[in-house]
Amino acid sequence: MRINKYIAQAGIASRRKADELIADGKVKINGAVLREPGYDVAETDVVEVLGQTLVGREDYVYYALNKPAGYVTTMSDEKGRPTVASLMTDVTARVFPVGRLDYDSNGLIIMTNDGALSQQISHPKHAVVKTYIATVNGCLSRDQLWALRNGVEIEIKQGNRLVMYKTKPAFIEAIKTGPNQSVYEVKISEGKNRQIRKMFQTQGLKVLELTSTAIGEIKRGSTHEGGYRKLTKNEIEYLKNLSCG
């Protein structure tokens, strides 16, 4: 298996990023810095990336985690905050999150050790619809609701600079409305950093609580907060069919 694919399947980076790590001398094979980007990994090779030794491919596992607020969806955090991986207490495989759910948000996130599948289904071309419940400090007018449904301009980071980005059309329906607090179901097919929070902010509203309830056809279900369950065979097939699209 080519080294960039091997690194991608370990969930460390995409193939393109893996090639960059190799070019930067961040990958070692059997203790020596790798200089061949097209290197084929043998079963006996010891592969290190950024000082971390990768193990051979395990059997792939897939979980639905109900993330609590106050956890980051990364494998480590420079600020010392708890990570979602720390919640997977009885899972021996080195699983990692597919996509992101911000620190203050809670709800469904998929955890797996299938790096190739993760990279493929996270690609924007698949436009997987993600469903959220947003509690906000006020109520949207008809015009504000129309604006959010049809796309608003939010600020995002592009490289080292901030740019304005117009969101794609979104599905937004009121669940409960009131002058001081309202609850909306929101469905989007993209995932810019803190996108839903920024969308409501353009209308002068603050998101008080944001919960991920579904990723495509995969539902959070009744799993308790901080708990997780194995994906069913049908759910795994659904993800694999997405990655083939």
Salient structural properties:
21% helix; 245 residues; 9-stranded mixed sheet; 4-stranded antiparallel sheet; alpha+beta
Summarize the topology.
Blueprint (H helix, E strand, L loop, with lengths): L2 H7 L5 H9 L3 E3 L2 E2 L13 E3 L2 E3 L7 E6 L28 E3 L7 E7 L2 H7 L8 E7 L5 H9 L2 E6 L2 E6 L4 E6 L5 E7 L6 H7 L5 E9 L2 E2 L8 E3 L2 H12 L1
Parallel strand pairs: 7-13
Antiparallel strand pairs: 1-2, 1-3, 3-4, 5-7, 5-15, 6-7, 8-12, 8-13, 9-10, 11-12, 13-14
Helix pairs in contact: 1-2, 1-3
Concise account of the structure shown:
A hairpin with a 2-residue loop joins strand 9 (153-158) and strand 10. By secondary structure, this protein is an alpha+beta fold. The chain has helices at 3-9, 15-23, 115-121, 142-150, 195-201, 233-244; strands at residues 27-29, 32-33, 47-49, 52-54, 62-67, 96-98, 106-112, 130-136, 153-158, 161-166, 171-176, 182-188, 207-215, 218-219, 228-230.
Q: Segments where pLDDT lies below 50 for 5+ residues?
A: none
Radius of gyration of CA atoms, rounded to a whole number: 20 Å
Kindly estimate the percentage of residues that lie in beta strands according to DSSP: 25-35%
Distance between the termini: 23 Å
- Measured as a percent range, the helix fraction is 10-25%
Determine the structural class based on helices, strands and strand pairing: alpha+beta
- The total of beta strands comes to 15
SSE series: HHEEEEEEEHEHEEEEHEEEH
Overall pLDDT metric? 91
Q: So what's the overall shape? A: elongated
Largest sheet: 9 strands, mixed
Count, helices: 6
